Structure prediction request, 332 residues.
Amino acid sequence: MRDARARALRDLRISVTDRCNFRCTYCMPKDVFGKDYPFLPHAQLLSFEEIARIARVFVDHGVGKIRLTGGEPLLRRNVERLVEMLAGLGDVDLTLTINGSLLARKARALRAAGLKRVTVSLDSLDDRVFRAMNDADYPVAQVLDGIDAAEAAGLAPLKVNMVVKRGVNDGDILPMARFFRGSGRVLRFIEFMDVGATNGWRMDDVVPSAEVIARINAEMPLEPVDPNYSGEVAERWRYRDGGGEIGVISSVTQAFCRDCTRARLSTEGMVYTCLFATSGFDLRALVRGGASDEELGAAIRRIWRARADRYSEMRTAQTAGLRKIEMSYIGG
Ligand code: SAM
Ligand code: SF4
Ligand code: SF4
Prediction:
């Protein structure tokens, strides 16, 4: 099945909660996501059974990779039960993106539920910088403990995501590279993006991936690695001395819309065909209205075939100001 730009449907990102215990300044700034923020009430969320059913229909339509995200996925109660249901879908590469703060507590239950890998976000090894970025006073040590617990539980190889913002944590690029080099963990540098409508994005705050690579290469020589598959989001590099791999995700300076095979299912069951979408398609209404799997499948085919999104290829200072869906809701 191909969309209007001949792209296949391969990946599904599922947001399991719009809530988070962090207030990362680039994602859920505290002045917007404050005490009175109207997070979704529980009845609005898709149940695990509903998520698993929708996911199964997506798998029947070509999805081979499912990532649970949010918000902070580990805040959703008993999320390991959902993991178990999705792991039972068969030949699907299942993973989770998490902030690491609750991982030490959950790692073994997640592994026992059938999870194989996780991606953990960590923006700095400097406690002062990290606490300022997560704006919830979480220390680096708690995330590193979570990473250790994940590996001890068998969740490996582990990926680490670092969003780079100029003047905030670009001084941490080299310390992070040095720390994770040779550890078997794959550090990935993400360009700061204009997701949502509240993070105050400016092009000046973006550190282009080419600059990240140049800075690391000057100290620890790198060479490019072929992608694992077409449509891979991260561009891969490896240390020439065998110290392992890193990745860069350059959605601002080198848009990869042409190969984008991702659909997103929001916490309340809306399907979005782009991270920067301004509107979606209500699958929950179909599910709760008694639609058959056949009818769900027909809706997914309609949605995908009409898809023409290529936001990152058209990004300008003006589009950055559009009222897009917040990332914590749509799922990063
Ligand atoms: N709470 C989980 C976490 O932080 O890993 C999962 C959800 S989070 C929205 C998913 C990923 O998106 C994280 O790696 C996060 O750093 C990244 N992210 C959030 N806002 C971003 C932005 N404005 N630009 C680039 N990446 C961003
Ligand atoms: Fe929470 Fe993740 Fe967003 Fe940070 S990036 S506020 S941890 S959802
Ligand atoms: Fe895919 Fe939209 Fe990102 Fe382009 S901007 S890569 S279409 S999610």
The pocket of iron/sulfur cluster (ligand 3) is lined by residues 251, 256-257, 260, 262, 274-276, 309-312 (CB under 6 Å). The mean pLDDT is 94.
